[in-house]
Amino acid sequence: MVGGGMAGLAAAYYLQRAAEVAGRPVQVVLFESDRRLGGKVRSVQSGPYRLEGGPDAVVRYKPWFLDLVRELGLEGEVVGTTPAKPAALIFKGGRGYPLPEGLNVVIPSRFGPLVRTPLLSPAGKLRAALDLFLPRGPEGDEPFGAFVQRRLGREVWDNLAAPLTGGIYGGDPYELSTLAAFPMLKELEAKNRSLILGSLRAMRRRQGSREGGSLFASLQGGLGRVVEAVTRAADRVDWRLGAPVERLEHHEGRWQLFGPWGTEGFDALVLAVPARVAGELLGPLDPELAAPLREIPYGDTATVTLAFDRSRFPEVVGHGVLVAAGEGTRARGFTWLSRKWTGRAPEDKLLVRAYFSGAGAGLDEKGLVDAARSDLERIVGPIPDHEAAWTYRWKAGMPQYTVGHLDRVRRIEAAPSRWPGLELIGAAYRGVGLPEVVRDGRDAAARTLEHLSREP
């Protein structure tokens, strides 16, 4: 296996476990170019502060990450977000407005909050209501921004959908593939015609199903606890840190890996690396496979976490604030980390995390901190000096699911017919969230064991 992010870790863990259950001896070796495992999952304990450099939560309705948590014996550490109403604000026109209640992804599913929200003008609300009468749109893919504007209008896009999705996928949310990133919304339109009516029905079915009363979950010690637990549980895996793979060869059904550490041969290969890296490795062997891998674009992301004296910081509500389109900030939004999660900072301190993507994430560390402070002051007013700062930058760290993504993935998934025993997994293909990449690793492990079981 190549790549020690969450997808590679899950694949290694599930392959060892499945091999043990099947009674088949399998030696798993995982190569990671970095000196640490976990990829963007990076929980940090710095003095009295506990923070996340990368993702800080998973959604409960996608069960695969929490299934892994339970298998690792960490279920008792699962925590939900603190109760908050409103949960978040949208910053627009120099003010913060509560996020309307009852959103299904980004689609209003309750008429009352939609009518009352100051985020939409009277004309914007009437335009959104036209969704109730508009015919179904085309079945094919389209940019997500075009999809939302076609159904609900420009204001819903600028003031609700764009800020909500920009923080998930980074880059330009307008250009996202609707079929790849939000297939459930295309399905809502196909089945119900109206997104609002379809969302209303979906939310009614989902009522009462949220475990622990919270949509999001984390662990008391941070998501990095899963990385630690996987490496302990997968105790027969040979973890090779600081071991980049620079070249691949394939001879008589076996993969030969080359790096500054030497060369080694294997019966199966799981590439859990960014798509562009997989394309570089596989290009000399299979240009047809490398082409769609290289076509998947990536965007930069970064986070800045600042610690403040809570008594000197302006009063804030909810878990954070997202920024509407066109407001001119470099940060996509802010999370009040120590309000969102318990145990992240002393009671008299406040942890604030800023999220950057696209051009804003290209600043150096000082530039990111300065931008975070400047944007924060625009939103909450004058702020005191911060007592500590932590910055994490992910160059080309977020795959962009642009229109045509599903076709690219179909071309990539045809590879096993030409290269038995090869698996390509990770956030670039079938979902960017931690639950999806864990599922990817689990499924790849099952296919890999099946392949090895056919080997003589």
From TrEMBL:
Pathway: Porphyrin-containing compound metabolism; protoheme biosynthesis. The keyword Endoplasmic reticulum does not apply. It comes from the Bacteria. Its cofactor is FAD. Transmembrane segments: none annotated. Pfam families: Amino_oxidase. One of its GO terms (molecular function) is oxygen-dependent protoporphyrinogen oxidase activity. Belongs to the protoporphyrinogen/coproporphyrinogen oxidase family. Coproporphyrinogen III oxidase subfamily. This is Coproporphyrinogen III oxidase.
